[in-house]
Every structure is written in structure tokens, then in C-alpha cells.
């Protein structure tokens, strides 16, 4: 028998306090009826001395201390799931907003999930192709990995996210099932429409499920959206044996929603006003990526966050970097040069890429090529710094070669079209082509056998290209 409580003792922002509560539990969902007509959902976030603090998802507008009826449901927040969620669009709490009706649920699941037993995890192997050279070659995304994108206000992270959704696959020769779960938190209507239209026009929407929390939606809903998305991803991966890529944008909106709710609860703030449990909340989300023994599926995460003032030491990117296995960093100076995607390869890394590339996965030269491109591009920075002091004309011939390599690397390798889907072999060949700008003796990060095989191939290709150009003239 369910018990209803009449009235509230306190309303504070998105929080309400209910007194005289019995047999309530943490994270339990409650139904709140306002003036006998409008129903809202909330969840219990704190219990003490017969009082329950409730977060109201739809906001506390129109609510007063006397006009509400509150009923405990006896269960936590759950989401309806089936394979039919693919191709559908939902709001931040999992309700359909595409006009196609409700999901015929095969089961419902607690959105809070369950911690994965470390002993049941399998080590991430194999890669996910994004069609973006900088990621596929230098910061390769591995199945089961969590690899965030660190961006800033005004940088094209939304376009990059959309391109990854359009182009991501398990590789050209894979027959395994692949799906994408896309969750957006606090996005504007025009951004949400951009994602929706882009996925539909590209034909990717059939294997994408979208969860959209708009900027004018309740702040509390942003705290639930990534949990709903990850619950759907776990269902598709571990029940339906799919490889699932989860894209979460923007985690900064999630953290700011936490800060707002924490302030309403009167909690003591930590760094930059964020609650002290920001780390554990982020870890609770990020650690839901992985591969589980006994299932052929996997959950791979690409969280996107905007760094306030481009500060990589800000608590959100700082804590994210502790939890995840690398990062992809977008650079404002590259963006100002009209280079897309403006990925700065030097601070970017993927700690697991060595285990999912090479012979049997991509190509045997992949790791050596990536090491050499990193090393050579780092030398470009030194040459540019020297040129800014003494002038480019005074540089040594080898430093001038590095300047040439740096310009070509940025404009031909990093830069690519927003609809350009590069295959992994095309990307690797492009890397070798650029390395032929440098003398062979400068390529000290490549095994001699690999250098003999691929450096000569690119030299021959370049010489044939020069001959053809001369004949055409």
C-alpha cells in the first residue's frame, strides 16, 4: 500500500523538504501532484530524522507548501529499454520526444547502474575508427576505453562530435554490430537541431539513440541524463552484444548542475565552488565504460567538456584526466588558423592505443609512425620559437625543413573536411608522405626494417608525382 503525504515543509530552488517520512530510501523516485492535476517526478537525495530532501526534475514552479501531494514509488529512477531505442530521440530522463510514441519495453533498469567487478573486466583491445586522421593515427580510440575531448568555448567540439557519430565504425572488415548513444546536456535548441539534422541527413540515425537535455530544461535533469544514456549503452552492449560508443556533451554542464544543486542543499563548497564529491560523481560515470567477460559487446566513452577560460587545470578537466585513459585537446590557435579539427597533438594522448593498433589491428608500422610524427612535430615547435627570435632566414637548413614539415602536417594531416572520412590506411600513408619532407637520418623513432619498407615507398611515390607534374607542364 502506497502512502501519500500532503504538503511540504520547505522549497529551495529545485529542492523540496518533506517531513514525517517513513520507509523511504536514498535515490528513491517520488511522484508529486501539484493542485491535483500536474504530476512531477523527483528523487530523494538526502534522508535525516524523518525528513527527506527531494530533487524535483521538472522544477518547483507552481508548487507551494500546501498544494502538493507526494507519493513514494518504492523504486529508484528506471528507464525502459529494448532494441527499439535505436533511431529514437528522448529527453534527459528517457521519455520519447520524437513523436513516435513510447517504447515497448522488454525490461526496465535502474539508471544508477552497478559497479563493474574489476575481476570481471577484460582488457580493452582493437580500435574504433573515427575517420579523423589525428585521432585514428595519434590518439587511437580503443574499444572499452574512455577518451575525453577537452575543448573551450567557441571551439568546434559540436561539429567534431557530430562527425565522429557519422563516421565511427569498427573498421572496414568488421561484421560485428555497432551502435552509438549520444547524450547532450544543457544544449541550446539550435545545437540540438544541428545534431538531429546531421544524423538524419548522413543516414547514421538508424544506429544512434539520442538523449537531449536542452538549456531550458530543468537543471536537475542534467544530473540524470548521462546515467540514462549509460544505462541504455550497457543494455545494448552486455545484453545485445553490441559494441557501443557513448558520446557525452557537455560534461561541464553536468558539473555546473551539480554545483547549483549542491549550493541549494547548503553543502560546503570545494575547489571553484564545486562539491567535494565531484571526483566520485565523475568516476561513477566514466567507470561504466569497459568490456565484461562473457559478453562480446563493449562500452566506449568519449566525454566532451569545455574548459572554462581554456584552463586545463580547472577542476573538471583536471579530475577527468585522473579518471580517464588520455585526452584529445582542441587548440584555439589552430582554430584561429582555420584548421579543422583543431586538435593539438602534443598534449593529446591515448594511453591504451598501443594495445589496439599494429599488425592484426591496423598496420605493423602504426606505432612507429605515430612516435615519429609526435617527435617531429615537437621539434617544429622548437624551430618556430627560434625563428621568432633570429628570423626564419637565419635558421639552419634542417630547421627550415622542420618548419616546412610543420606547415604541411597542420594543413594536410590535422586539417580535413567536416565530411571527409579518411580510412586508416590513407591516414598512415599520408603520415609517411609528410615524413619524406625530412631527411631519413632525422627519423630516429622508427625501426630500421619499417623505415626501409615504408619510407622508400613514399619516396618513390613522391618522385613519380614530381615527374608527372613536370610532364604536364
From TrEMBL:
Residues 355-455 form the ATP synthase A/B type C-terminal domain. Coiled coil: none annotated. GO terms for molecular function: ATP binding; proton-transporting ATP synthase activity, rotational mechanism; proton-transporting ATPase activity, rotational mechanism. GO terms for biological process: proton motive force-driven plasma membrane ATP synthesis. It holds the Pfam family ATP-synt_VA_C. Residues 9-63 form the ATPase F1/V1/A1 complex alpha/beta subunit N-terminal domain. Residues 131-350 form the ATPase F1/V1/A1 complex alpha/beta subunit nucleotide-binding domain. Keywords: ATP synthesis, Hydrogen ion transport, Ion transport, Transport. The keyword Cell division does not apply. SUPFAM superfamilies: P-loop containing nucleoside triphosphate hydrolases. CDD domains: ATP-synt_V_A-type_beta_C, ATP-synt_V_A-type_beta_N, V_A-ATPase_B. NCBIfam families: PRK04196.1. Belongs to the ATPase alpha/beta chains family. PANTHER family: V-TYPE PROTON ATPASE SUBUNIT B. Produces ATP from ADP in the presence of a proton gradient across the membrane. The V-type beta chain is a regulatory subunit. HAMAP family: ATP_synth_B_arch (MF_00310). This is V-type ATP synthase beta chain.
Amino acid at each position: 500500500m502506497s502512502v501519500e503525504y500532503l504538503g511540504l515543509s520547505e522549497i529551495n530552488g529545485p529542492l523540496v523538504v518533506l517531513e514525517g517520512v517513513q520507509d523511504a530510501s536514498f535515490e528513491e523516485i517520488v511522484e508529486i501532484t501539484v493542485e491535483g492535476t500536474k504530476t512531477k517526478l523527483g528523487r530523494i537525495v538526502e534522508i535525516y530524522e524523518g525528513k527527506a530532501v527531494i530533487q524535483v526534475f521538472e522544477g518547483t514552479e507552481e508548487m507551494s507548501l500546501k498544494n502538493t501531494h507526494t507519493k513514494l514509488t518504492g523504486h529508484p529512477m528506471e528507464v525502459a529499454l529494448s532494441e527499439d531505442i535505436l533511431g529514437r530521440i528522448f529527453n534527459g530522463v528517457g521519455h520519447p520526444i520524437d513523436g513516435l510514441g513510447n517504447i515497448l519495453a522488454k525490461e526496465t533498469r535502474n539508471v544508477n547502474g552497478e559497479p563493474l567487478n574489476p575481476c570481471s573486466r577484460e582488457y580493452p583491445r582493437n580500435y574504433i575508427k573515427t575517420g579523423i586522421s589525428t585521432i585514428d593515427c595519434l590518439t587511437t580510440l580503443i574499444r572499452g576505453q574512455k577518451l575525453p575531448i577537452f575543448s573551450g568555448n567557441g571551439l568546434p567540439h559540436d561539429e567534431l562530435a557530430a562527425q565522429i557519430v557519422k563516421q565511427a565504425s569498427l573498421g572496414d572488415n568488421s561484421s560485428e554490430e555497432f551502435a552509438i548513444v549520444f547524450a547532450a546536456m544543457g544544449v541550446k535548441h539550435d545545437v540540438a537541431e544541428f545534431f538531429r539534422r546531421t544524423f538524419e541527413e548522413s543516414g547514421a540515425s538508424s544506429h544512434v539513440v539520442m538523449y537531449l537535455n536542452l538549456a531550458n530544461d530543468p537543471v536537475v535533469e542534467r544530473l540524470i541524463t548521462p546515467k540514462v544514456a549509460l544505462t541504455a549503452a550497457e543494455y545494448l552492449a552486455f545484453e545485445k552484444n553490441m559494441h557501443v560508443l557513448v558520446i557525452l556533451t557537455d560534461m561541464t554542464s553536468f558539473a555546473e548542475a551539480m554545483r547549483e544543486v549542491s549550493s541549494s542543499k547548503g553543502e560546503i563548497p570545494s575547489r571553484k565552488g564545486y562539491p567535494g564529491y565531484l571526483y566520485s560523481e565523475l568516476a561513477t560515470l566514466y567507470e561504466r565504460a569497459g568490456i565484461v567477460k562473457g559478453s562480446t559487446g563493449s562500452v566506449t566513452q568519449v566525454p566532451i567538456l569545455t574548459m572554462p577560460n581554456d584552463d586545463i587545470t580547472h577542476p573538471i578537466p583536471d579530475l577527468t584526466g585522473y579518471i580517464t585513459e588520455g585526452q584529445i585537446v582542441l587548440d584555439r590557435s589552430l582554430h584561429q588558423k582555420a584548421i579543422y579539427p583543431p586538435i593539438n597533438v602534443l598534449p593529446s594522448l591515448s594511453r591504451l592505443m598501443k594495445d589496439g593498433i599494429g599488425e592484426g589491428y591496423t598496420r605493423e608500422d602504426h606505432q612507429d609512425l605515430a612516435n615519429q610524427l609526435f617527435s617531429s612535430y615537437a621539434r617544429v615547435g622548437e624551430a618556430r620559437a627560434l625563428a621568432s627570435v633570429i628570423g626564419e632566414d637565419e635558421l639552419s637548413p634542417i630547421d627550415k625543413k622542420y618548419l616546412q614539415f610543420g606547415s604541411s602536417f597542420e594543413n594536410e594531416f590535422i586539417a580535413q573536411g567536416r565530411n571527409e572520412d579518411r580510412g586508416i590506411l590513407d591516414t598512415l600513408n599520408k603520415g609517411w608522405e609528410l615524413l619524406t619532407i625530412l631527411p631519413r637520418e632525422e627519423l630516429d623513432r622508427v625501426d630500421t626494417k619499417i623505415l626501409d619498407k615504408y619510407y622508400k615507398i613514399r619516396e618513390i611515390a613522391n618522385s613519380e608525382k614530381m615527374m608527372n607534374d613536370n610532364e604536364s607542364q
